[in-house]
Amino acid sequence: MKLKKISGGFDELLEELESQIEQETRKIKVVLDERKKKKRTPSKVTIIYGIPEEEAEEVVKYLKKKIGTGGTYKNGAIELRGDVRKKIKPILIELGYREDQIEIE
Fold it and tell me: SUI1 domain location, by residue (predicted)?
């Protein structure tokens, strides 16, 4: 684990350590959901759980641009149009998440 240099007191150091520990232990789960609409074929939606709210908007924006699909952040999860589960893992790793944190179903 890499520690950032912090100027300040013990409280700031403790907050930073807690933040880093949370980030190290966070699990990201990627699942596929089918949304059924009246008299149409179901649309597929890839849902990503476990991205913190403060990072979610940036991650959604980057994923949409990189994959070329629509998406949003709502109800504590990122939703992307289509089955893009295979494309997500390398992009999340590129964004700094560890491979062992990401679970794809």
Answer: 28-96
Specify the DSSP class assigned to residue 41: P
Which tokens go with 87?
Answer: 């494309």
d(CA 67, CA 8): 41
The whole-angstrom separation of Cα 95 and Cα 97 is 6
Closest CA to 63 of 51, 54, 24: 51
CATH class name, domain 27-104: alpha beta
pLDDT in tens, 25-66: 678 999 999 988 777 788 899 999 999 888 899 999 999 999
Q: Which long-range contacts (CB under 8 A, 24 or more apart) does 71-76 make?
A: 76/49
Let me know: does 40 contact 91? Beta carbons within 8 Å: no
Pairwise CA distance, residues 71 & 65, whole Å: 10
